[in-house]
Design brief:
The chain is mainly β and 956 residues long. Among the domains are: 31 residues, no CATH class; 29 residues, no CATH class; 130 residues, no CATH class; 28 residues, no CATH class; 42 residues, no CATH class; 95 residues. It is built from no helices and 68 strands.
């Protein structure tokens, strides 16, 4: 239905309830309509006046006064507005009475579609800078302008309800321009009474963050200076010097900082850093001052003392183990921060806290040193008492002892009393006789025993008479140790120190000396029989009678054992000593006494009618029949000293108990001559001459090891003697007779192929019977006293080196020179005549030639030679005078054989001089010819060979 009602309103509609909608159709195409609820839907654009500038597009974006843009939902660009105040858009809403929840003239909300993408920002309202036309002026440019608010009960210019959270801000102002607030500002309060009022229950009511290169601070300035509060950053402070991230409150000039109450200064920090509490002029780093009389006793209630007399550090937290105290800090000479503290630690119940003292022990570590518990127990190095002890010192060692020190003229004493008379005391102290005698003592001051025990059982006591009992409470001797057990009961004296003088001993003394049983530590410096890690039975120096060990029975023996109960040595009843064995039945005549060692060794001595024998044997002893006999089956040897001689003898293998026949192998007689293979040596070392002899050093027996050296050296002069020669080493071949000779040869082994095959030594040098030295040969090749024969230049050369190997001179069969970067010189009459440098320069008469050949001094060649006819130039001819009666022809030597040779010719006759060959190059160059000198008397020329021709170098 289409019509106009009584109010002149155009309407389109239906009064039929069966009709659910009305559509708009053009040429059979539907472009929208009204549904049953009255909603209007258009499928095309809606044009309001101007199709270009006033359009609602089919996609929902609208433009008023401009062209619609797909990126802008509503584009309002009006033009032609009039009035002294003009507005791009005005939103005004008069709400009905149903709007009890709230009234909003405009709601702005930005969002994103349900798709996987990221947008840089979402802004509910973006206010851009004003567009100022050319020639116009904008006095005040406001981003947002909020009028006076009076209509509401509570009137707010700007409200933000963003809840606290990460990356969330109610007000975020990122511009660097200043902020201006004309009224009072309240943070955490809605009733600010001053330009800035902070009232909040949070832990940090005001937080000021500084920039990365400075500090954050508050400064209140007057004519006298500035009061400053701030925090440093990691790079230091822009206010005052300080630690990174440290907090600062104070002044930045030479004035004091004071805290006041009731108009009075309560705390003062002066310009020097001294802190005064109760005084405006502190004279020390911290001075707490109060003038208030009060009386204190050890049982006074602290809260009954006038409060002004106390310095309190209070923590009212209701919990155990809460600490409040005082910390003292300083720095070491190396700059390390040092701290010490004391304070009170709360307990779970009761009125007595724990009082503690401690120190800093590392960069972030602290250690408690002492505490007084709530029960009054004093603990040092511990945190809990043992058996409710009133004093406990823990961690005490020999290097960290607990010390009680007396006064300047008093002993240091720790005394214990029972509840009886005051004289019933037990004392531990130092300064027994006088305060300075350093005598330490433990003493019971009454006539009663001093008892020591463990595990609640008495272990030792000193009775009233001074007797010491160990394991007994009734000692009858000065020291008595007692224990009833089916085991060893012993007394030990132990010293575990490993020092050079560490030992322990037990001594039995008399008026003339002591017997000492001692043990010595592993580091003990040996002195006589006192050895490290050993024990000794000794007498003191005052025991002039010596030490006796005996077995008084006629058949008794003395036994010695080691390594447990194993017998190691015994002295039998005959006085013979067996080491590791029971001595055999030795000869008893001639005062024979023997030391028998193990299963075969023996040493015995005897007197045979004034001839004294000392014999060392292996597998041999002298039996009761006075003959040598085998101890065991096997070989036997002996070494005998008698009549000034030393005799070494051997015997073949024999049966145990059988008689031995010894054969002398070596004799050292009384004159000092040593004979090997002879019993009558005639020289210092004599070898028996009945067979060829070899003095031989055996090969090394260690696997894969080179052989060792053998040194033969004559004697040197007395040490410290002046200008004395050393002994001469004589090496001689054997004496010959008649036409016979003898020689000396030297053999060495040369390197072979890699492997284990022996390289047998071969002759390398000999001195023959005429005294010639031959190296590398056996037959002289000439009359030289020294001949060196080799297969090539290298093996026929002698190298001379400096001690540091930096210079090497080689003399070979056909050369002499240096093989290092050093000069070579030729001397005569002890003077250096010719020097060849490593650069190749040669000097004659100079040691520093700068040219290939430099002669300092006169230089000469052979005298000039006069030629009157044709001639061949001789090898020694350099200066030629031609005086012919006709042309003279010169046969020059081949230039290739004389490269660099210089020849000078002149003519004193008016005849030409020519070469026999075309091998002379003119002065001006060109092809070689035969012309040398023109037919004019006085002409001369200098020719030099270039290896091909003779080149004219100069002439006239």
């Amino acid at each position: 239905m289409l019509g106009i009602n009584a109010s002149d309103t155009l309407f389109i509609g239906s009064v039929d309830a069966a009709v659910s909608s009305i559509t708009f159709n053009v040429n059979g195409t539907t472009y929208g309509g009204f549904d049953a609820s009255g909603n209007v839907n258009f499928t095309g654009n809606v044009i309001l006046g101007n199709a270009t500038t006033d359009t609602v597009t089919v996609n929902g974006y609208m433009s008023v006064g401009g062209t619609p843009t797909a990126s802008q939902g509503l584009r309002v660009i009006p033009s032609g507005l009039t009035g002294t105040s003009q507005f791009g858009s005005v939103l005004s809403l008069t709400a009905t009475s149903a709007a009890t929840a709230g009234v909003e003239a405009a709601r702005v909300q930005a969002g994103t579609a349900a798709a996987a993408f990221t947008t840089a920002y979402a802004a509910g309202l973006w206010v851009r800078d004003a567009l100022r036309g050319a020639g116009s002026t904008i006095t005040n440019n406001y981003g947002i302008y909020i009028d006076e608010k009076v209509a509401g009960t509570n009137n707010y210019g700007l409200v933000s309800v963003v809840a606290a959270g990460a990356n969330k801000w109610n007000l975020y102002i990122d511009g660097t321009a200043a902020n201006y607030f004309a009224g009072n500002v309240g943070i955490g309060t809605v009733t600010p009474g001053s330009p800035l009022t902070i009232g909040t229950a949070t832990a940090i009511p005001l937080l000021i963050n500084g920039q990365t290169t400075g500090a954050s601070y508050i400064s209140i300035t007057n004519t006298g200076g500035a009061y400053v509060g701030g925090v440093n950053n990691s790079a230091g402070s822009a206010i005052v010097s300080g630690l990174a991230y440290s907090s600062l409150v104070g002044t930045n000039n030479a004035t004091a900082l004071q805290l006041t109450t009731n108009g009075n200064a309560r705390l003062t920090v002066d310009s020097a850093g001294n802190v005064g509490i109760g005084t405006n002029a502190p004279g020390t780093l911290l001075q707490v001052q109060q003038t208030l009389a009060n009386t204190y006793t050890s049982t006074s209630a602290i809260d009954a003392v006038p409060i002004g007399s106390l310095t309190s550090i209070v923590n009212l937290a209701q919990a155990a183990d809460v600490f409040r105290g005082v910390n003292f800090s300083s720095r070491s000479a190396a700059g390390d921060l040092q701290n010490a503290y004391f304070g009170a630690v709360s307990t779970a119940t009761g009125n007595s806290p724990i009082f503690v003292w401690g120190q800093r022990t590392g960069a972030t570590a602290y250690a408690e040193r002492m505490r007084i518990t709530s029960a009054g127990e004093v603990l040092i190095g511990a945190t809990a008492a043992i058996n409710s002890s009133k004093l406990l010192v823990a961690g005490v060692t020999g290097s960290n002892p607990a010390v009680i020190q007396g006064g300047a003229a008093a002993s240091a004493v720790l005394a214990f009393y029972n509840n009886a008379a005051t004289n019933n005391r037990f004392m531990i102290g130092q300064g027994y006789g006088t305060a300075s005698d350093n005598i330490a003592f433990i003493q019971n001051y009454v006539s009663a025993a001093l008892v020591f025990g463990t595990n609640s059982t008495e272990r030792m006591r000193v009775d009233a008479s001074g007797n010491v009992g160990i394991g007994t409470n009734a000692p009858t001797t000065l020291v008595q140790a007692s224990k009833t057990q089916n085991a060893d009961t012993s007394i030990s004296v132990v010293n575990l120190d490993t020092g050079a003088a560490a030992s322990s001993s037990v001594q039995a003394g008399s008026d003339s000396g002591n017997a000492i049983l001692a043990a010595y530590g592993s580091g003990f410096t040996p002195t006589g029989v006192r050895l490290a890690s050993s024990a000794a039975l000794l007498t003191s120096a005052a025991s002039t009678g010596g030490l006796s060990i005996g077995a008084r029975n006629a058949a008794g023996v003395i036994r010695f054992s080691t390594g447990g109960d194993t017998e190691r040595m015994r002295i039998d009843s005959a006085g013979n000593l067996g080491l590791g064995i029971t001595p055999s039945a030795w000869r008893t005549a001639a005062g024979t006494k023997a030391l028998q060692i193990g299963v075969g060794g023996a040493l015995f001595s005897q007197d045979s009618s004034g001839t004294y024998w000392t014999v060392l044997t292996s597998n041999s002893f002298q039996n009761t029949s006075n003959v040598d006999a085998y101890i065991n089956t096997g070989f036997a040897t002996s070494y005998t000293q008698t009549s000034g001689k030393h005799v070494w003898a051997t015997a073949p293998s024999g049966t145990a108990g059988a008689t031995i026949t010894f054969t002398s192998a070596m004799t050292l007689d009384a004159s000092g001559n040593l004979g090997i293979g002879t019993t009558t040596p005639t020289n210092l070392l004599s070898l028996g001459g009945n067979a060829a002899r070899t003095i031989w050093m055996e090969r090394h027996t260690t696997a894969n090891t080179a052989g060792n050296n053998l040194t033969l050296q004559s004697g040197g002069a007395t040490s410290g003697a002046t200008d004395k020669t050393g002994g001469t080493l004589l090496l001689s071949s054997g004496t010959a007779t008649g036409t016979g000779t003898s020689i000396i040869t030297f053999l060495t082994a040369t390197a072979g192929s890699t492997g284990t095959v022996d390289n047998a030594p071969a002759e390398r040098m000999r001195i023959n019977s005429t005294g010639n030295l031959l190296i590398g040969g056996t037959t002289p090749q000439g009359n030289s006293r020294i001949e060196l024969l080799g297969t090539n230049d290298a093996t026929s050369a002698i190298s001379l080196y400096r001690s540091d190997l930096s210079h090497r001179t080689v003399i070979g069969a056909n050369y002499i020179g240096t093989f290092t970067a050093s000069s070579f010189s030729v001397f005569s009459n002890s003077l250096e005549r010719i020097t060849a440098l490593s650069s190749g320069n040669v000097g004659i008469g100079t040691t520093t030639p700068v040219n290939k050949l430099q002669v300092n001094g006169s230089f000469g060649r052979n005298a000039p030679v006069t030629k009157t006819g044709n001639f061949t130039l001789g090898d020694a001819e350099n200066w030629l005078i031609c005086n012919g009666t006709a042309t003279i022809t010169v046969t020059l030597p081949a230039a290739s054989s004389w490269t660099g040779r210089e020849v000078m010719l002149k003519t004193i006759a008016a005849f030409t001089v020519v070469s026999a060959s075309s091998n002379v190059v003119p002065l001006i160059g060109g092809a070689a010819g035969t012309a040398i000198l023109a037919a004019t008397a006085g002409k001369w020329v200098t020719l030099v060979s270039d290896g091909t021709n003779w080149i004219t170098m100069a002439g006239a």
